[in-house]
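Sample pair:
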Amino acid sequence: MGDLNPGLYVVATPIGNLGDLSPRAREVLRDAAVIAAEDTRTTGTLLRLAESQARSLSLTEHNVQARIPELLAAAETTPVALVSDAGTPVVADPGARLVEAAHARGIPVFAVPGPSALAAAISVAGFEGTSVHFLGFLPRQAGERRERLRSAGTAASVLVFFESPNRLSATLDAVAEVFGDPETVVCRELTKLHEEVARGPASELARRFERTKGECTVVVRVPAREETDVEAVRQYMAEMQRAGARRSGAAAEAARRFRVAKDVAYALWKEENSSGRAMLR
């Protein structure tokens, strides 16, 4: 079993290029008694590379609670490795519950750092900022997605999230709407053969990636926040209402003019209508 002590080893694995598997990670995979993996078929390639004879167990969102007792029992007397399909475990995967349970049981937890799509994307984006907020995967529903972005943007200068290629264009449109078309970076297929890093306004990237494939990590530079002149927005919406404009169109234009979220302008229109008062006196 080599020189590894019993415990749980959280092992970062390549996000695409197998050459990124570190010598230490290879050693841990080779000498571990058990390896917990999201997909044992995916991890099988790494185990063959590391010449590992370890027993593999799947650890998914659906079976994590059932697997924890068996894995903890093994980690009390032998080295157990936790890996994800790609990158650093516990970043947007169910491994956190196993790590938490190991701490609660008093089992040693060891970090075997290495590749991470999160760190890689931040490094190639080139955005300065000490306040970085990782959002994992955004909600599927458009309204919930915008609200999650808006909420995160109030407390961070840089946002990072994962997105599927099928929803990437729509999500970039939401970023443009919520933050006034900020500078954004799309990292697609990092470290793989067709790796692509594209930087520009969110709206332009939305058009560029209307049809794409592969895993995507997005980095957004949140514009500096300014005090919103709510009264100016309210007055503008009143003028548009008197002129017979459609509420959605007026809200979109207010968002562009005043650099305010479209939903805020939309709510001001609804607020005045529901109160039964004229918007301007």
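Strands lie at 7-11, 34-37, 55-58, 79-83, 109-112, 132-137, 158-163, 183-188, 196-201, 216-221.
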